[in-house]
Amino acid sequence: MTDAPAIPDFSRGVDGLLPAIAQDAGSGRVLMLAWMNPQAWQETLETGQATYWSRSRGKLWRKGETSGHRQRVTEIRVDCDADTILLSVEQTGAACHDGYASCFYRTIQSDGSATVADSRLVDPNDVYGKGSDAPSA
């Protein structure tokens, strides 16, 4: 068996960013996909709390900083190419800024239409303020 690098290879990512998948530590359900740069990676390692890079805001995104819906990291894995990160997390509250447990709350039908398959846990207006734009990755 060949040993892969122990840390992610950020040089393989676009603009130094690698995809980071957050997965529920208990159920295994995929909660979200976000992006990490070396700074987000280091902060995640140091704090044990998921930290990402927000492409839309151009800065670190400490998951739950605004909403309180934090992710405590229980395990970190990297794929065989060291260019994708998998975080096993204990999620507090909704992972999705739309108020759902997972960002993957819609199913797509054979005609291409979408159906909401999950129940909303929280109203985003209550979390982020009425009429405000919910944070995006």
TrEMBL record:
GO cellular component term, pick one: cytoplasm
Domain of life, source organism: Bacteria
Metabolic or biological pathway: Amino-acid biosynthesis; L-histidine biosynthesis; L-histidine from 5-phospho-alpha-D-ribose 1-diphosphate: step 3/9; Amino-acid biosynthesis; L-histidine biosynthesis; L-histidine from 5-phospho-alpha-D-ribose 1-diphosphate: step 2/9
Listed Gene3D superfamilies: Phosphoribosyl-AMP cyclohydrolase (3.10.20.810)
Cofactor note: Binds 1 zinc ion per subunit.
Swiss-Prot/TrEMBL cofactor(s): Zn(2+); Mg(2+)
Principal location: cytoplasm
GO molecular function annotation: magnesium ion binding; phosphoribosyl-AMP cyclohydrolase activity; phosphoribosyl-ATP diphosphatase activity; zinc ion binding
Ligand binding (Zn(2+)): C80, C96, C103
GO biological process: L-histidine biosynthetic process
Keyword Amino-acid biosynthesis recorded: yes
Domain Phosphoribosyl-AMP cyclohydrolase: 32-105
Keyword Amino-acid biosynthesis assigned: yes
Oligomeric and partner information: Homodimer.
Protein name stated in the entry: Phosphoribosyl-AMP cyclohydrolase
Organism: Rosistilla ulvae
